[in-house]
Design goal:
Radius of gyration of chain A: 28 Å
Number of strands of chain B: 8
Order of helices and strands of chain B: EEEEEEEEHH
Number of domains of chain B: 2
CATH superfamily of the largest domain in chain B: F0F1 ATP synthase delta/epsilon subunit, N-terminal
CATH topology of the largest domain in chain B: ATP Synthase, domain 1
Shape of chain B: elongated
Strand content of chain A: 5-15%
Number of helices of chain A: 6
Largest sheet of chain A: 5 strands, mixed
CATH architecture of the largest domain in chain B: Sandwich
CATH architecture of one domain in chain A: 3-Layer(aba) Sandwich
CATH class of the largest domain in chain B: Mainly Beta
Shape of chain A: elongated
Strand order of the largest sheet of chain A: 3-2-1-4-5
Largest interface: A-B, 25 and 25 residues
Largest sheet of chain B: 8 strands, mixed
Number of helices of chain B: 2
Distance between the termini of chain A: 28 Å
Structural class of chain A: alpha/beta
Distance between the termini of chain B: 27 Å
Helix content of chain A: 55-70%
Structural class of chain B: alpha+beta
Oligomer: heterodimer
Helix content of chain B: 25-40%
CATH topology of one domain in chain A: Pyruvate Kinase, Chain: A, domain 1
């Protein structure tokens, strides 16, 4: 009985150890990738912030702008742009972003979706959502041209009035151990609250060359593209951080499991030896 | 120097330039504008063209591939898709991409492709022009 037990336990230890090697390796890989994405994040952040600042300050100083990207329309259809990873094994990262979208939807039949990442694509397609476009293989190292392509599709839909608002879901890297899905309204452009504060202070007349409307129709597509780009980079870093934490936990659990199994193995081995001795002694005793 | 102001040029990949300058000449969609200290606040789209920066009496030349600029009290910010110093432009690469764009223009596929090819041709020509201008 005991002999069988030890062999089984040994096999189990071996298989857990194999899994542990994989999770450990994945942890190391994501640590390296996280480092790289974080570097990119810190490089793009100034651009991202500057563009948003510029758009916000224009919007705040010109209250009565008339522009197709600014005017609010009655919301009939909503476009969601959602970013997930191409791969799983990263804790709640993919699920949280998709949940954010699903929770926000009032009527799924009036929602259009652009997915970025294989996970979102398969989820929204499988559940019968209206997916208009999908991007794969760009989640890990997004390029600015990808963001421009996505922005172009989104703006086209908005211009043709197929959608009346655009919402963008990405994951913000709060810290290495905490990532938070964020929903942002891209269009129509909304003025942030901080815009109200400096209005009465040193309000200055800003010149728009050639005209505010012209400038806006130029800047807003840029704003949309760079917001998407910023979101892509942020999500890429979040994905690696989430995976690193998930894999670290998995490796720790495997370590614990191996410890427990080794203990049971040794106990079983010891029990087998004791029993054998008892049998020998018993046998010798009987021969006397 | 009292007649200097802060100029920032940011691209998606990096902060390209962030220093005090005396003068900047930049091409907007409405034509070249020169910016000295205490310029009135302006927001304008930037065309594909050159940026000339005057620092300590010397001019620096950079190629810029479109974007927009904002001038406010403290500083001038140029936001562009890409920027390169004239001396760092890889002429061979620029020429290759000009040829590529021309070829694509001749093939004439969709409307979008033509538009894209035109833009990339314009950018490539701009880079070639600027790098030869040093």
């Amino acid at each position: 009985m005991a002999g069988m037990g030890t062999r089984d336990i040994k096999r189990k230890i071996k298989s857990v150890n194999n899994t542990r090697q994989i999770t450990k390796a994945m942890e190391l890989v994501s640590t390296a990738k996280l480092k790289r994405s974080k570097d990119r994040l810190s490089v793009t952040k100034p651009y991202f912030d500057t563009v948003i600042d510029a758009v916000q300050s224009i919007m705040a100083s010109e209250k009565n702008l008339k522009h197709e990207f600014v005017n609010k329309r009655a919301v009939e259809n909503t476009l969601y742009i959602v970013i997930t990873g191409d791969r799983g094994l990263c804790g709640g990262y993919n699920v949280n972003a998709m949940k954010k979208v699903v929770h926000d939807m009032v009527d799924p039949s009036k929602a259009l979706i652009i997915t970025i990442g294989r996970k979102a694509q398969s989820y929204f397609n499988a559940n019968g959502f209206n997916v208009i476009d999908s991007f794969e293989g760009i989640s890990e190292s997004p390029m600015y041209t990808d963001a421009q392509a996505i922005a172009r599709i989104a703006l086209e839909l908005y211009k043709q009035e197929k959608v009346d608002e655009i919402k963008f879901v990405y994951t913000n890297l709060v810290s290495t151990i905490s990532q938070e899905p964020v929903m942002l309204k891209l269009l129509p452009v909304e003025v942030g609250e901080e815009g109200e504060v400096d209005k009465n202070e040193d309000f200055e007349f800003i010149n728009y060359e050639p005209s505010p409307e012209e400038v806006l129709s130029f800047i807003i597509p840029k704003y949309v593209a760079s917001t998407i780009y910023g979101g892509l980079i942020d999500s890429a870093a979040s994905e690696q951080a989430a995976r690193r934490v998930a894999m670290e936990n998995a490796s720790n659990n495997a370590d614990e499991l191996i410890g427990d199994l080794t203990l049971t193995y040794n106990q079983a081995r010891q029990a087998a030896i004791t029993q054998e001795i008892a049998e020998i002694v018993g046998g010798a005793e009987a021969l006397k | 120097m009292s007649s200097m102001y802060k100029l920032e040029i940011v691209t998606p990949d990096k902060s390209f330039f962030d220093e005090d300058v005396e003068m900047t000449i930049i091409r907007t969609t409405e034509g070249d504008i020169g910016i000295l200290k205490d310029h009135e606040p302006v927001v304008a789209p930037v065309a594909v063209g050159s940026i000339k920066i005057k620092q300590n009496g010397e001019f620096k030349l950079a190629a810029c591939s479109g974007g927009f600029l904002t001038i406010d009290d403290e500083r001038v910010i140029v936001i562009t898709d890409a920027a390169e110093w004239a001396e760092e432009i890889d002429i061979q690469r620029a020429e290759e991409s000009a040829q590529r764009a021309e070829r694509r223009l001749n093939e004439k596929q969709g409307e979008l492709d033509v538009l894209r090819a035109k833009i990339s041709l314009e950018r490539a020509m701009n880079r070639i022009r600027i790098s030869k201008n040093i």
